[in-house]
Amino acid sequence: MPETAHIGRGPRMKSTATIDEDNKTAAILKCLDVAAILIDIDAVVTNLNEQAALILGIDRKEILGRSFFGLEEDNSHYVNVRAALRRALGYPSGEQQAELILHVRGRDHTYLLKPAPLRLEDGTPFGTMITLHDMTYLRDKERARTNLIATLSNELKTPLTSLSLAIELLQRKTPDPKQHEIIDTVVEDLARIRDLSDSLLNVTRDETTSIAVRNVSFFLPGS
Q1: 16-134 has which CATH code?
Q2: Digit-coded pLDDT (tens) for 110-146
Q3: Which residues belong to CATH 3.30.450.20 in the chain?
């Protein structure tokens, strides 16, 4: 997608038919539940709905007819959306999407940005529709679930430790072989519960693999 700037150009003259089509497109975008921005083959913004204007923090009239890649750099929302679009476009076709977090209406929102190429019936491209799906509710639920699992796992550690110490004490002071069999069964059950607790805790962790790099001096034979 060429990043051709059209800032400074005068307004394009539109026929009545074109204006009618723009009005129809605007009406369709208004009915969408997601923020949507339409740009043509030259990356010029041809339409967008109010949700998109709100997220970008730009009035619709100020962005229409201008290059999406040539707007003011002092708007942090626009800069973040533009960066997310570039990230998404860098992925293979079918995987083009990117998440970003923006502070909108008093709180942080998580959006999933997706660019969708627009083509005519003969396959000729004529633009791109950029959508921003609000994923905040889903991400909030994921965080709540993760926090709950981590809390339950940590809360299990104290009683499990106490039970383990009590069972160990019983093992030492119980001479009856039959009672030892019962105690051994309890020990196995406690071990399974502890493994389950550890597994739950590991699910909530972002386990990343780190590679340590260090310089080592060595001499080759004959050097």
Answers
A1: 3.30.450.20
A2: 999 999 999 988 989 999 999 999 998 888 888 888 8
A3: 16-134
